[in-house]
Structures are given as structure tokens and as C-alpha cells.
Design a protein that fits this description.
Order of helices and strands: EHEHEHEHHHEHEHHHEEE
Shape: globular
Distance between the termini: 29 Å
CATH superfamily of the largest domain: HUPs
CATH architecture of the largest domain: 3-Layer(aba) Sandwich
Structural class: alpha/beta
Number of strands: 9
Bound molecules: pantoate
């Protein structure tokens, strides 16, 4: 079983010791409630590193006042069982007070790719993500950290922060893992009623349609309308359904070489997001890059 470490000083010492012994350490930050998507990040880390650390911490600063912080699933023992077969060496599971000491007032404020979409709808969310990820990188000073392309905007924000602050860690972005019907794996899928779970497939379906229309040369506005219609037909309350530049997230108004389609919507009280990188116009889907995700900054791997 992985060793569960609660104390940040001990966690840092273990990582420093492993790296001093010449071991390459991979780090997978999570909020727990682990599923096959997390397992794929861990597998990728294990394939490229000697030791893997996984953090499990439900970060209060990335939840808005009306969001699901209180009900977010906390399943540490079950998570440890999920991680065991992957050879994870450490689980870092700090208390909130160890990450945010009483009276703390320091935050990282992010701009650029953090501003539109999730940034507009969830004020402060990415400041909370950047702050906790930076704190985690200081406590788990690994060689590389692994994030899922499902949270496309988050990967852009983390990569920008790493570049801007000169943090000495490689960011690796791994493909989204999907259920058999296409629904992107997410800890929040567990909130869905049976009926909403069936309807939720419309998010990935709308992205699949977007790719087909993109390849066929349809205009971005027409593609966005189709995505929206598909989601609404399945009873999803659409937050956004857009095409954007994959790096800046600027809206796409016309032809472009690269694009990403991003959707967010609500089923009951559950809010889900998903995205798909669109391959070049006139190309077949099979020509698409096998490894979706924002292009790495110079000197960073995917
Ligand atoms: O993607 C997540 O699970 C969280 O946003 C992260 C990166 C672990 C920060 O709390």
C-alpha cells in the first residue's frame, strides 16, 4: 500500500531524499474520489518515473460559496486501494490547516487563459487552483506533474503559472479518459441521477459533432449552435459551447489551424465540463495528434 503522509515537512523530505538518490519522481495532484481518469495519469507517471506521489486534497479556495465543497466526495481509504496496484509510493493527504495556516492571506492571482469561460463563471476558481498547485509543488518538489486534458483551461493556467514563476517542474498533459458512451470521466459524475447520467452523453456527442463539422469546413458560429442545440435537446442547461484558440482561449471567429471545442452545462445541480481538440480542416480524425492537450511551453513536455 502507498504510505499516506499528512505532514508537509515529512512529504518534502521524502521527495528530496528520493531525488537526491537519483530517482525521478512524478506527481499527480488530485482532489480524490479517484476514477479511471486519475488511474491513467498515475500510469503515465509510473511509466516515466521511478517513484510516484499522488496528492489527495479537496482544496477549499477553488470552490465558490454556492459550489459543492461540502458535498465533494472524500474517500481516502478507497482511493488508497485504487492507487495500490499502480505502485504509487506516497499519498500526500494534508489537513486544510497544513496548506492554509490560520490567518493566511497570500494568493496567486492568474490572468491570461484563466479569464474567459470557467474564469468568468467561477470567479476566483483559478486563483485557488494556482495557489494550491503552487503550494503542492513546493511540498512535493517532483521532476514532473501530470494533469488531465479534460480540464483544458486548468492545464493552460498551470502551465502559464509554472512559466511565469519559473517553477522547476515539467508539466505533462494526458488524454481525457471516457466512459464507453463517451462521457468524460469526472468525480462529479457520481452526483448524476440515472436519467441525468444518460443525458450527460450529449456533452461528448456535441464535441464529436463539432469535430465533424469542423473537418467539413463549417463556420465556428454554426458549429457552436449545433453543440448548444444537441446539449439542450438532451435537457442540459448550457453554460457555454464554444470554439476557441487552444492556447489563448480567444474566441474563434474564422478559419484556424488549431482549435478546441469546449462545453459546460448543468444536469440538475451537477455542472459538467468537457472539451475536444479539433484536427485540421480537410484532415481525417485519424490524422489528429494522438496526444491531445495544449502544446507544451518551451522546455516542457506534454
Ligand atoms: O484537477 C483537480 O483535481 C484540482 O483542480 C487540482 C489540480 C488537484 C487542484 O486542487
Amino acid at each position: 500500500m502507498p504510505e499516506i503522509v499528512h505532514d508537509p515537512d515529512r512529504m518534502r523530505a521524502l521527495i528530496v531524499e528520493a531525488r537526491a538518490a537519483g530517482r525521478r519522481v512524478g506527481f499527480v495532484p488530485t482532489m480524490g474520489a479517484l476514477h479511471a481518469g486519475h488511474a491513467s495519469l498515475v500510469a503515465r507517471a509510473a511509466a516515466g518515473c521511478d517513484d510516484v506521489a499522488v496528492s489527495i486534497f479537496v482544496n477549499p479556495t477553488q470552490f465558490g460559496p454556492q459550489e459543492d465543497f461540502a458535498r465533494y466526495p472524500r474517500t481516502l481509504s478507497a482511493d488508497a486501494v485504487v492507487l495500490e496496484p499502480h505502485g504509487v509510493r506516497w499519498i500526500y493527504a494534508p489537513e486544510v490547516a497544513a496548506v492554509y495556516p490560520p490567518g493566511d492571506t497570500t494568493r496567486i492571482v492568474v490572468g491570461g487563459p484563466a479569464v474567459p469561460l470557467e474564469g468568468e463563471r467561477r470567479p476566483g476558481h483559478f486563483d485557488g487552483v494556482a495557489t494550491v498547485v503552487c503550494k503542492l509543488f513546493l511540498t512535493v518538489p517532483a521532476d514532473a506533474a501530470y494533469f488531465g486534458a479534460k480540464d483544458w483551461q486548468q492545464t493552460l493556467v498551470v502551465r502559464r503559472m509554472v512559466r511565469d514563476l519559473g517553477l522547476p517542474i515539467e508539466i505533462v498533459v494526458c488524454p481525457t479518459v471516457r466512459e464507453a458512451d463517451g462521457l468524460a470521466m469526472s468525480s462529479r459524475n457520481a452526483y448524476l441521477s440515472a436519467g441525468d447520467r444518460l443525458r450527460a452523453v450529449a456533452l461528448s456527442e456535441s464535441l464529436r459533432q463539432a469535430e465533424q463539422l469542423w473537418i467539413a469546413g463549417a463556420a465556428p458560429t454554426a458549429i457552436e449552435q449545433t453543440m448548444r442545440d444537441t446539449m439542450e435537446r438532451h435537457g442540459i442547461v448550457v453554460d457555454y459551447a464554444v470554439l476557441a484558440d487552444p492556447e489563448s482561449l480567444d474566441p474563434l471567429t474564422d478559419h484556424a489551424i488549431r482549435a478546441v471545442a469546449l462545453v459546460a452545462g448543468r444536469l440538475g445541480s451537477t455542472r459538467l465540463i468537457d472539451n475536444r481538440e479539433l484536427c485540421g480542416r480537410g484532415a481525417s480524425a485519424a490524422d489528429n495528434t494522438p496526444e491531445p492537450g495544449p502544446a507544451p511551453e518551451q522546455g516542457q513536455a506534454r
